[in-house]
Design brief:
Number of helices: 29
Mean pLDDT: 90
Order of helices and strands: HHHHHHHHHHHHHHHHHHHHHHHHHHHHH
Number of strands: 0
Distance between the termini: 56 Å
Length: 580
């Protein structure tokens, strides 16, 4: 092993001598490099080798390269690269090769080699690395795509890129991304002459072959549309674009994506030149385009009466309505179209749940209280088990001041899963607090306390305490706390809120605070180190007795379990030194 290491160090001597001779490194720095690389070389020749040692060696060599680059710029010396940088780059490539041979499955290691080659090595070296990597990892389409793009972008070889994509398709015959990238390598938006394209590519024939092969294996409208969008980038694929459009309209009309795409194409139709001179004229032109889009969507829902089809239609109209315009007629027309389609989709029971919120917002903003009430009630019948829908509808009815809302809350809690009911309990409490008598609100809170769902019972307990304080002051809050402090499930927030209430009084009582801390620590004292620290801080405060802190600390150390002990010790030390 020592002989191999010694030989490798001796092989470096010429480049190190050159570094010193031309003034890039000092004699002392060269000695330091020799010492460091000797240690790194020995690590690479041990019986048991680690990947981290290879990475450390590579990083050290790259750091040397970067330093040489900076020194060259500083002293304006640009010669002897073949004798200085090239041996280092060759050595780094060799170390990478040894590492990837040993740890073949480490894709990140391979990609690190690729990144190094892109910055420092020759273009042919990148191809070699990709070739070796793909031989080991042919099952990863992303690597094939990277390799092909590298051939095109780093080596200006569209033919090599195409061959790599075709090889990728042997392993991944149904991969959409590979097909999409294969079509896109013919992009002509680059500067003239940047890449060399064959006549076969420039005529569009290759794209046609790829398209037929791809759609023969992947029969999805969305995929066909993605290929059409790529083809549309190029000025030599007009015939192919027409062919794809014909294919869509003939073979993919059972997919909402086709109708959506064809409808939106109507927006791109040329407009009348004279009309576009004024805002009103432009609005009129836009309105006609949107009408043509709607005609296509209408054909779509007639042919394909499904939720995805109606969703495409509604999404389009929503997007158009959100667009700003100062022409009132266009605003009103967009809203009219949208409301009509929302109603029809709802009547077919095919309106997506998410869109009811948009519908209700439009009705409320336009002052249609009757329409909003009707939609809110109908939505809960259609989505009777949806907490989101009930919350939305109840909020709408609350805003409209509906008299039967109390009954609707009961209906909601009857229909939905109790485990998901917390938002409705919270909403009902807020509504009752603002609109009902204290007795009715208290009845709701007491019903909530009896819930079999712990989250609901705990939340209602906290609400009950807060409500008692806000309506009846400290005495009522303390009475509520006393009556509920033994009723499980219990939350930490319930106790800390009572502590806060006590401290808000003009003359807070320390004995009461101690009682609250002792009670909460009975429940959470084994895991919550912060509670113990807060108790200690309370005793250190103006109301407390500092001599009690030692006993509380001793109890904390006895009760706390697991990681909470270490956290407590650390925070207590900070408290003692005045850093907490």
């Amino acid at each position: 092993m020592a002989e191999i290491v010694q030989q490798r160090i001796e092989d470096r001597i010429p480049e190190l001598e050159q570094l010193e001779r031309v003034g890039l490194f000092t004699k002392k720095e060269v000695k330091s490099i020799i010492k460091r690389v000797t240690a790194l070389e020995y690590k690479l020749h041990r019986l048991i080798i680690n990947k981290e040692d290879f990475i450390a060696y590579i990083q050290y060599e790259i750091n040397v390269l970067e330093l040489i680059k900076k020194r060259r710029a500083h002293i304006h010396y640009q010669f002897k690269r073949e004798e200085i940088e090239y041996p280092i780059i060759h050595r780094i490539n060799s170390i990478f090769k040894r590492a990837t041979n040993k740890w073949k499955d480490d894709v990140q290691l391979w990609l690190s080699h690729v990144a190094f080659c892109k910055k420092w090595a020759t273009k042919s070296q990148i191809s070699k690395v990709f070739s070796a990597m793909l031989a080991i990892h042919p099952d990863k389409p992303a690597l094939w795509i990277m390799g092909a793009k590298s051939e095109l972008e780093d080596r200006n070889s569209s033919e090599s890129a195409r061959h790599l994509f075709l090889r990728a398709l042997r392993f991944h015959p149904n991969n959409k991304k590979v097909y999409q990238e294969l079509v896109s390598i013919k992009q002509t938006e680059h500067k003239p002459g940047e890449y060399e394209f064959s006549p076969e590519i420039l005529s569009g024939k290759l794209a046609e072959v790829v398209y037929k092969d791809a759609t023969g294996k992947i029969k999805e409208a969305g995929f066909v549309i993605s290929l059409l969008n790529i083809a549309a980038i190029f000025d030599f694929t007009k015939d192919l674009q027409d062919s794809i459009l014909q294919d869509l309209q003939t073979n993919y009309t059972d997919d909402s994506a086709t109708w959506d795409f064809m409808a939106k194409r109507e927006l791109e139709a040329p407009g009348a030149g004279e009309e576009l001179q004024t805002a009103k004229g432009r609005a009129s032109d836009i309105n006609r385009r949107e009408e043509r889009c709607c005609q296509v969507y209408e054909e779509g829902v007639k042919s394909l009466n499904t939720e995805p089809m109606w969703t495409c239609y509604v999404a389009f109209l929503l997007e158009r309505m959100k667009r700003k315009t100062n022409v009132q007629e266009l605003k009103e027309k967009r809203q009219e179209r949208l409301l009509g389609v929302l109603q029809r989709a709802h009547d077919c029971a095919l309106l997506k749940e998410d869109y009811y919120k948009n519908w209700l917002q439009i009705l409320l903003s336009s002052g249609d209280a009757e329409g909003a009430t009707s939609v809110a009630m109908a939505a809960t019948q259609l989505y009777s088990q949806s907490v989101t829908m009930w919350s939305l509808s109840l909020q709408t009815l609350m805003e409209l001041g509906n008299r039967d809302i109390g009954r609707f809350f009961q209906d909601a809690l009857t229909h939905i899963n109790p485990k998901e009911s917390l938002p409705l309990w919270q909403l009902q409490f807020e509504w009752s607090k603002a609109n009902q008598s204290p007795e009715e609100t208290e009845a709701i809170l007491k019903r909530g306390l009896l819930s079999a769902v712990p989250a609901v019972a705990m939340e209602m307990k906290e609400c009950y305490l807060d409500w008692s304080y806000s309506t009846g002051g400290y005495k009522k809050a303390r009475k509520t706390f006393t009556s509920l402090q033994e009723n499980r499930p219990l939350s930490k927030a319930f106790f800390t809120r009572m502590i806060q209430i006590e401290k808000e009084q003009e003359n807070p009582k320390m004995n009461n605070l101690r009682d609250y801390y002792e009670r909460v620590l009975q429940e959470f004292g084994t895991s919550d180190d912060d509670l113990w620290l807060q108790y200690i801080q309370e005793e250190l405060g103006p109301l407390g007795q500092p001599e009690n802190c030692g006993k509380i600390h001793w109890r904390a150390m006895k009760f706390l379990e697991g990681d909470s002990v270490e956290r407590f010790i650390s925070k207590y030390t900070l408290l003692q030194t005045g850093h907490l």
